Amino acid sequence: MTLVAALSIQPFLYLSAALFCAGLIAVLSRRNAVAILIGIELMLNAANINLVAFDRFRVQVGDAPVIDGQLFALLVLAIAAAEAAVALALILNVFDTRDRIDVDELDLLKG
Fold first, then answer.
1. Tens of pLDDT along 64-108?
2. How far is residue 57 from each of residues 36, 52, 53, 73, measured CA to CA in Å?
């Protein structure tokens, strides 16, 4: 018997909730754009833990086709990578023009 088979879904959900709350606190309390991106990545990783946990502990109902949670998690990872690339490109562009990355000053994107 493996360790995952002995566990229930609750520890995974608690871990996911803790990661999501930490990411939400980071997004709401930080003024630095890079720290906000790290908080968003934490929230996306919490969603991935939920997807994989629900896939691992799912109950098969009939012969209905099921899209696996791992497939959704890979989709979330691909979207997160694209989001990080675009956001970091924008942050670097703002840093080149203003020499600061303070999100309070980014209300107008004029030069």
1. 656 677 787 888 888 888 888 888 888 888 778 777 777 777 666
2. 32, 9, 6, 15
Closest CA to 33 of 103, 93, 86, 84: 103
Q: Residue 57 carries which side chain, given as an amino acid letter?
A: F
Distance (Å, whole) CA 52 – CA 31? 32
Instruction: Please tell me the distance from the alpha carbon of residue 25 to that of residue 23, in angstroms, as a whole number.
Output: 5
Instruction: Give dist(CA 35, CA 27) in Å, integer.
Output: 7
- At 7, the amino acid letter reads L
Cβ contact 87:37 at 8 Å? yes
Question: What's this model's pTM, rounded to 2 decimal places?
Answer: 0.74
32 strand-pairing partners: 102
User: Cα dist. 67→4, 13, 16, 49, 73 in Å?
Assistant: 21, 20, 21, 16, 11
